Amino acid sequence: MKIAPTTVRTRRAPVFAGAALCLALLAPAMAAPPDLPPLYETQSGEHHAGKVIWAELVTPDLQGAERFYAGLFGWTFTEVAGVRAGPGSTYAIARLAGRPIAGLLQRDAPAQGHVQTAWLTFLASSDTDAAARNAVAHGARVLAEPRSYGRRGRQAILADPEGAVFAILSSSNGDAPDLLAEPGEWIWSALLVHDADAEAAFYQDLLGYEVYDLPSDDGREHAVLSSDEFARASVNTMPTDAMHRHPHWLNFVRVLNAGDAVARALSLGGRVLVEPHADRHGGQVAILADPQGTPFGVMEWSEAGAAGDAK
Questions:
Q1: pLDDT tens digits, residue range 91-133?
Q2: End of a domain among 171, 204, 228?
């Protein structure tokens, strides 16, 4: 199995399903689903079930988010006309060197309350409807029913058995090739839960992953979800002092130097949630929050790394 993370060419939901609930409003807010652009401009001819192929940010300050991520990763942004999730909403596509990286949805806070900012993780599936049915049969909940979105494909938003929010997407133009992410691209995704073994089994049943145990020196369980002989994501037991936290997905962007990325994020108004430290592959990782409080990770990468034992 190749452990090197793969690029998504276009992609941690925090402690609540705010992203899913806001994105789910896209459907009822319009008579017909919005004509979202495809993830890739040409047909890839490839399909990689379980690969993380997209991510979308829900934020109350789209311009502020654009300034932050542009300054941190060099992303550029294009607003997509006609995509609305109610009053005060705007949708934009983030790009790196012209390649789609992620979607950003502005959602104004209601008069009473606030918008729960979040990055929503999208997993590839060849059949969104079947995957949604299978997920429900194994203890998940549907937050947004399967629906086709213009030229993008068919997607559904789900909460897994522990409540971690994610999306399933059958991309109309196929999935990106399995290439190592460039700096500024999404490189890895991690699921943090209370019962890593049960959650790994859920996603294995859902998308056909092979599950590999990883060696652990912290007394917690860690596993890799793999498909097509590529590592796609990890499932990790949360620390015991985090039992009050809601299970969630966390996405990482590749950087050349995590320390430099942290300093730049701070200068742009972000916060450090976890200081840079060495991960099991030898590079440095850190967890940050953008100025609106949305968590995400940064990760250095080398070709080193090893698999565990397959389950």
A1: 999 999 999 999 999 877 666 666 678 899 999 999 999 999 9
A2: 171
Provide the 8-state DSSP code for 86: S
Exposure string for 270-293, b = 16+ CB within 10 A, e = fewer: beeeeebeebbbebbbbbbbbbbe
CATH code for position 126: 3.10.180.10
The pTM score is 0.87
How far is CA 18 from its chain centroid? Answer: 14
- What per-residue string of b and e applies to 8-34 under the rule 16 or more CB within 10 Å gives b? bbbbbbbeebbbbbbbbbbbeeeeebb
Domain that holds residue 304: 186-310
The predicted-structure confidence for 46-75, as pLDDT tens digits, reads as follows 889 999 999 999 998 999 999 999 999 999
From CA 191, how far away is CA 180, in angstroms rounded? Answer: 20
Spatial CA neighbour of 129 closest among 143, 145, 152: 145
* pLDDT given at position 50: 96
Provide the pairing of β-strand 271-278 with 284-289: antiparallel
Question: What domain count does the chain have?
Answer: 2
Backbone angles phi, psi at 2, to 5 degrees: -85, 120
In a domain, 3, yes or no: no
In a domain, 13, yes or no: no
- Does the residue 4 lie in any domain? no
The span from the CA of 197 to the CA of 20, in Å, is: 25
User: Which residues of the chain register pLDDT less than 70?
Assistant: 1-33, 82-89, 109-115, 242-244, 303-311
- The dihedral through the CA atoms of 164, 165, 168, 173 has a sign that is negative
